[in-house]
Design goal:
The protein is mainly alpha-helical. Among the domains are: 105 residues, Tetratricopeptide repeat domain (Serine Threonine Protein Phosphatase 5, Tetratricopeptide repeat, Alpha Horseshoe); 256 residues, Rossmann fold (3-Layer(aba) Sandwich). Strands 2-3-1-4-5 form a 5-stranded parallel sheet, sandwiched between helices. Helix 10 runs antiparallel to helix 11. The longest helix is centred in the C-terminal third of the chain and has 21 residues.
Length: 518
């Protein structure tokens, strides 16, 4: 397809405006081009980029699909289309579009990087690495491309390769905060080998960037934990999160209202699930750092169980079926809209979404922690499904969330920027869990404590397999001995000292008895 020189110039200007985040003039230029030529694929592609950058992947898919159909030679539209589809967990469609992009050419560095992101999200790390390596070879000055390569290598288990690529990224851009937090997280820091001076300098220089301070402060906290100075680690965490807490303006009342809306989706034990009859799904839910990954490992030790991963399939389905736009999948609007949906259709849609992952297994384990909010709706849609809710001693549970570096692009963990907010969230989680305990059938909803997992993983594993209707014979289940829980030991919160006083006070004010066993 050949555009006029004027259209080519206008689209180039629009692309640069998007790169500079000057979105309104970029949009105006695209609309001017389309007024001249409604078949200008480049304009449709850039409108798709604009929509994606404004958190509207559904509209982006429409624009990018049109661009990809109008210009059969340009790989950029199908590559970006693939990424938008992957964001919405439409994996199979995304991989088809990625292959379309691969078949076109030549492919520039940024499009190769986009394809690498698609394959990374799909768990195809070897393919992702090839694309990231090719992108970096074309643009060796790009620190962000080196970072993406490092992250893919880390996901594939190549620690040495990841370290080399993170080092390359930081050589290109010493202020690349994501690379610092990731690099420090690769290995245990020692007195002889750590990055404290560089990190402290970067933290001081990042006084205008809450996100940079968040990453670098977490790296410093992890360094001090590795060196055994837990009180200093906590101090760095508090300093790292303070500016981000002010930036997001988190209000604990918002999550309190969310939990109230969740209770309203299944208010009493007299309600009954009205969805499908499949008992295939097992949902493992709870606050982060309470043993969710270990329970998933225990269940996946059974030959008849497979993983659905940590993707928010259930929430996305509710959002899409309710006709809500954007990428948010956990809010009051979704919960309220879900009340008007047919539970059977919701259940069927969920089973279709995870179907490609099941591959003939009897059970599929969905370890999306925040699905604890949806427990009532899950039971309505899939009344034969099992829900396992993790709990942990309050101080340890809250500290596990506070110590974790969450994705800043999502608001669901904004409570974890402040100790008092974390306490309020935990109290709300406990109240909601108590509600589910009272209204959901005991053969469909069970709880397990972190402390029990640590003390007796085999016994808890057998109990949970029995709860899930999976056989206990040695031919079908192998106990995974390594608990692989990185969020501290039982009672580990005591090592962090007086700095945790606001957390304890917040819990006690909310009526949580911190010294009682879970």
């Amino acid at each position: 397809m050949t555009d006029s020189p004027q259209i080519v110039q206008s689209l180039a200007e629009a692309e640069q405006l998007i790169a500079d985040q000057a979105y309104e003039p970029a949009h105006a230029l695209c609309m001017e081009v389309l007024a001249t030529d409604a078949q200008a694929a480049g304009a449709w592609r850039l409108l798709g980029v604009l929509a994606a950058d404004h958190d509207n992947p559904g509209k982006a898919i429409d624009f990018l699909g049109k661009a990809a159909a109008l210009d059969l030679d340009d790989p950029r539209a199908p590559a970006r289309l693939a990424l938008c589809l992957m964001i919405l967990e439409r994996r199979d469609e995304a991989l088809v579009q990625a292959q379309v992009a691969e078949a076109r050419g030549p492919i520039d560095a940024l499009t190769l990087d986009t394809l690498g992101l698609v394959f990374s999200r799909a768990g195809l790390h070897a393919r992702a690495i090839r694309h990231f390596e090719a992108a970096l070879a074309l643009a060796p000055e790009r620190a962000d491309l080196a970072f993406n390569l490092a992250a893919a290598r880390q996901s594939s288990g190549d620690v040495a390769g990841a370290e080399a690529a993170y080092a390359q990224a930081l050589t290109l851009d010493p202020a690349l905060h994501r690379a610092w937090s990731s690099r420090v997280g690769l290995r245990r820091q020692t007195a002889q080998a750590n990055f404290r001076p560089e990190l402290e300098a970067q933290f001081a220089a990042a006084h205008r960037s809450p996100e940079a301070r968040l990453h670098i402060g977490h790296a410093l906290a992890k360094t001090h934990e590795d060196l055994g100075d837990f009180e200093a680690a906590l101090d760095w965490l508090i300093r790292a999160k303070a500016a981000r807490r002010r930036q997001v303006g988190y209000d604990p009342r918002a999550d309190a209202e969310l939990f109230a809306a969740a209770r309203a989706t299944f208010p009493s034990a007299t309600d009954a699930g009205r969805g499908g009859s499949s008992g295939q799904p097992i949902f493992v839910v709870g606050m982060p750092g309470t043993g969710i990954s270990q329970v998933m490992q225990l269940l996946l030790g059974h030959s008849h169980a497979t993983a659905a991963g940590h993707l928010p399939h259930f929430g996305r389905i509710l959002t899409q079926m309710a006709g809500l736009s954007g990428t948010a999948w956990l809010d009051e609007m979704t919960l309220e809209a879900a009340g008007g949906l047919d539970p059977r259709q919701v259940g069927q849609a969920y089973l279709r979404a995870v179907g490609p992952l099941v591959a003939g297994h009897e059970r599929v384990v969905d370890a999306t922690s925040l699905n604890f909010v949806y427990a009532g709706l899950i039971h309505r849609a899939l009344p034969q499904a099992r829900i396992i809710c993790l709990r942990r001693q309050p101080m340890d549970a809250c500290l596990a969330s506070f110590r974790r570096l969450f994705d800043v692009d999502h608001p669901y963990f904004d409570y974890a920027y402040d100790l008092a907010d974390t306490a309020a969230y935990y109290a709300g989680f406990e109240r909601l869990t108590a509600h589910w305990r009272g209204v959901l059938p005991t053969d469909r909803f069970t709880e397990v404590s972190y402390e029990a997992l640590i003390a007796d993983p085999a016994g808890e594993g057998r109990r949970l397999l029995d709860f899930c209707g999976l056989s206990l014979d040695p031919d079908t289940w192998v106990l995974i001995e390594d608990p692989a829980i990185p969020d501290g030991s039982v009672g580990g919160w005591r090592e962090y000292g007086a700095g945790l006083a606001p957390l304890r006070q917040g819990l006690e004010t909310a009526g949580v008895r911190v010294d009682d066993p879970v």
